Amino acid sequence: MKKVYLHPLTVRIWHWINAVSFVVLIITGLQLRYREVMGIMKFRDAVDLHNLVGFVLIFNFLLWFVFYLFSGRIKVYIPPLNLKKFIVGCITQARYYGYGIFIGEANPHHSTADNKFNPIQQMAYLVIMLVLMPLQLVSGLLLWDTKTFGTWISLAGGIKVVDTVHVLIFLGLTSFIFIHLYLVTLGETPVTHIKAMFTGYEELKEERGH
Amino acid sequence: MFEESSENRAGKGTWGFIVLGPIFGMLYVCLLPLIGLMTLLLALPEYATAKKPDILEKGGMCMSCHASQGMTKVFKNNEKLSVTVRPGDFKVTVHSSLNCTDCHQKISLESHPGTVYESRSAFILEAAAACRTCHPDSQLNAKPVHAFLTNKANAPPCTGCHGAHSVKRIAELKPALTDNQYCLTCHRQRISTRLSNGEELSLFIDQSLLSASVHNKHSCSDCHSEFSRDSHPVRTYGSSRAHSIAVSQACMKCHADKIKAVRDSIHYNPSFPVGEIMVSEGNPKAPVCTDCHGFHSVGPRATFDTLSGVPCRKCHEDIFKVYSKSVHGMARANGQHKAPLCSSCHFAHDITVTAMAEKIKSACLGCHKGIEAVHKKWLPNAGLHMSAVACAACHSPNSGRGIYLRLEDQTTGKPFTEEQVTRLLGTTYEGLSRKMNAHGEGIGAGELWSIVQQLNEKGTNAKVTFFGKLNVSKGVESHQLAFKKQAVKECETCHNKNSDFFKSVTVAIVKADGKLSRYTARPEVLGSMFSLLSLRQFYVIGATRLTLLDWLGILMVAGGMMVPMAHITVRILTSPIREARKQHELRKGGKR
User: Fold this and answer.
1) Most C-beta atoms within 10 A of its C-beta, which of B139, B312, B460, B488?
2) Are B269 and B512 in contact (CB under 8 A)?
């Protein structure tokens, strides 16, 4: 077995804080929105927890952004400038998930520290990390103190618009989490990727030469 | 000789008669009246200074007691009346020649003190009736004001104005009296007038109230400008209401600022001049100055600060009953004079519609200073809550609540009035009403959005949208404010789609005069996708969420779960293929 160092400690800490925060925010968010069908905690407690973890997520995002930006790792999220290469890569990867994986073909993408994501992941995470997450965090911040951010809320179209954006992104990210959880089981073994996010090292078969 | 001498004598006598006769005649004619006149003139001082019999002599028997100081008469109702007669006062009156029994005809030595009267006034009325023995109706009716007074069934006794034993003509009183004293000579009597509609209007002025009023330095004619010492026109009114309106005009002379505030108030209809406040709406109880401040007892604000004296009760008794049981009403009843009354929150003159007004909230915050900080300790987004939720919505437990939607121009932050709406939409009030309820089931989400869209298209630079506010459904209930511990504190009360508060939705459009036109809206408007456009500034977490987002959420999450499940299923189904391929590769590897 060959070990590839994929996830530095900072990334691993960020990831697991992110993971726990997402779970807490999803549960408390659902509790806030669907009080008539959910009763696992009081509305007031859900607000406090949602706000607290929301700030944790904001700082965590800033940690990730600063680390990735200044370590140069941000480029793993940036698709190649060669559009043809990128589209071919996407099609190849999609073909693998939609066909190759079923007939036992090898994953066309091999993760390294510098090339962590396959083209589809790259596209998805680029949108998630640089568009959806900032939008979600900013909309959450606006809703946290509607008086202080009243002008910004009005500029954004009103409190209901801001909330709708917040909920739409929440739904998108929640849906993605199911897919994300499934995809992490598609390593060499179902726990390969998960272990890697704890240890930092991804175990690859020797014979594949990676 | 004899004849000659006779002729001579006769001649001399004739001459004497001719000369002296006219002289003596003239003297006789002129001197005699002169002597008579002189005699009269000489006698007059004597006559004038002659010691006439005074009351002490004429009424010797009576005055032996009644000249004493401190003589009082006690009536059945325990009232007392001084029956002391000062001879000096009586002596200078026009009645000085009269005897006691000329007026007190029923009193005799045999029966004195005679009739026992029920009250002081009963005695005075009967005693004063004697005046009419000498003063006939023709004399009493000579002046209109005098006739007005004396011909009434409940006319005050003559002595009320003219005095009893010191009786005087009113003209004689003038020089010694101030303007106000002069008016009060009659108006301190319990006089009244019957108005055209049969109401009795009191013309009595309580001097103690007048002295205690803030107007105690004023002259009567400062307000009653048509009246003076020399002018007393006889006026009549159709009703006491007409009288109140008319006399309230006088207040305008000094209190123009208050009149302006009243002009802007809910109690005033701007299409009518001041003084006909709300008369146009047929409300005879609509207040004018005197309804709240009284006539001559105009006092400082503090004089209204008693539970019983609140003038608003006259019309708003239902509210007052609720208020009396509220935390404020009870505090007031327990002697806490800082607890608010009507005017503390609604103010006195510029009373406006309160359903959507910030004014009431300001009034609450005026006393409960720093209350936002107190709410912040436990209430997230306290500022937003306090702007979107009326204080009474949480602090009036058990009251009905609902959502009020108000059109507002976001640019100016001011309400968009019904007049602006009808003008921009090119319709009338009736047309707007029909438009607001086209299907008879309340305003729908599409209709609400359509109105906002049209107003923004035609509303020049206005950015019109509906702002929502949670408030009590009935104005009366907003007065049943309870103790803090009874206030709504559970977030779930509102943040719950099943909350009853969101089942009552009212579109409230402010009129130019501050009143509201209310149109019922369907509760679905709060959660409709159209609300993203028409109600973009109103959102209650959970309660007014978009229904469509719920379905979209179910679809997205289900999709997120189904994709892996479907993929796993296909992987399971295709596992034989992969196994076969693996075996094939192993075999290939073995051959090599």
Assistant:
1) B312
2) no
**Across the interface, do B537 and A158 touch by the CB < 8 Å criterion?**
yes
A113: Cβ contacts below 8 Å, ≥ 6 apart: A4, A5, A6
Average pLDDT, chain B: 80
Residues of chain B positioned with their CB less than 8 A from the CB of A169? none
Structural domain that includes position A147: 2-79+109-208
Per the structure, the complete domain to which residue B140 belongs is given by 59-168
**How far is CA B550 from each of CA B328, B527, B563, rounded to the nearest angstrom?**
44, 10, 20
Mean of the pLDDT values across residues A25-51? 94
Query: Minimal Cα distance from A181: which residue of B?
Result: B564
What number is the ipTM of this complex? 0.89
Which residue among B110, B141, B168 closes a domain?
B168
* pLDDT value for B407: 87
- Asked whether B381 and A146 are in contact (CB, 8 A), the reply is yes
Q: Are residues B553 and B507 in the same domain?
A: no
Cα B297 from Cα B559, distance rounded (Å): 79
Whose CA is closest to B527, among B547, B541, B507, B542? Answer: B547
Closest CA–CA distance from residue B433 to any residue of chain A (Å)? 27
B138 lies in some domain: yes
Q: Which of B224-228, B236-240, B437-441 has the lowest mean pLDDT?
A: B437-441
